[in-house]
């Protein structure tokens, strides 16, 4: 393994951890703040929206970029773009970005602005991203078609 491969693998894993940290923490905080006060929930959603746009969504984009660079920089043909698991991972990554940028971040922004109906859409986005994350984990670990 080359040094560049190891660096990109490190950055890939780090980006995934950053991108998906809120997927496990935010639903718990959302419930806790929501049960205490709608104002607390609104304030939390506002902060979550800001962090989503500045930290989590860019980390998800970078995770895919680093993953592509892992394939490009690895030695030999162990990983290649013609492998099933790689193509499926790209499709799932695109879907994840669609959910984050099209459902989760806008719903957090609306909830932070006081739209209580956005909480249902945020919950739906959270469920979808969790399923996509589990699919991605399966693809990354078992590499079907390799």
Your description of this structure?
The chain has one domain (3-142). The chain starts with a helix and ends with a helix. With 146 residues, the chain is an all-alpha fold. It contains 4 helices and no strands. It is elongated, with a radius of gyration of 17 Å.
Please give the share of residues in helix: over 70%
Are there runs of 5+ residues with pLDDT below 50, and where? none
Extended strand count: 0
What average pLDDT do the residues reach?
94
The total of helices stands at: 4
| Radius of gyration, taken over Cα atoms and rounded to an integer in Å | 17 Å
| Overall SS class | mainly alpha
Multimerization state = single chain
End-to-end separation in angstroms reads: 18 Å
Number of domains: 1
Characterize the largest beta sheet: strand count, sense, and whether it forms a barrel: none
User: How are helices and strands ordered from N to C?
Assistant: HHHH
Strand content: under 5%
Gross geometry: elongated
Produce the secondary structure layout.
Blueprint: H1 3-36, H2 38-73, H3 84-112, H4 118-142
Throw out a few tags for this protein.
146 residues; mainly alpha; 4 helices; elongated; 85% helix
Give the structure's gist in a few sentences:
With 146 residues, the protein is mainly α. The chain is built from 4 helices and no strands.
């Amino acid at each position: 393994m080359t040094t560049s491969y190891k660096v990109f693998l490190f950055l890939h894993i780090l980006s995934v951890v950053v991108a998906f940290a809120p997927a496990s923490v935010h639903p718990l905080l959302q419930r806790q703040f929501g049960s205490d006060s709608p104002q607390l929930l609104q304030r939390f959603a506002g902060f979550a929206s800001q962090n989503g746009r500045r930290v989590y969504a860019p980390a998800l984009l970078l995770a895919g970029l680093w993953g592509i660079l892992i394939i490009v920089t690895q030695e030999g043909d162990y990983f290649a773009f013609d492998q099933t698991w790689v193509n499926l991972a790209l499709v799932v990554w695109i879907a994840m970005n669609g959910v984050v940028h099209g459902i989760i971040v806008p719903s957090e922004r609306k909830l932070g602005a006081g739209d209580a109906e956005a909480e249902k859409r945020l919950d739906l986005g959270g469920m979808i991203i969790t399923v996509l994350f589990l699919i991605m984990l399966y693809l990354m670990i078992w590499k079907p078609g390799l």
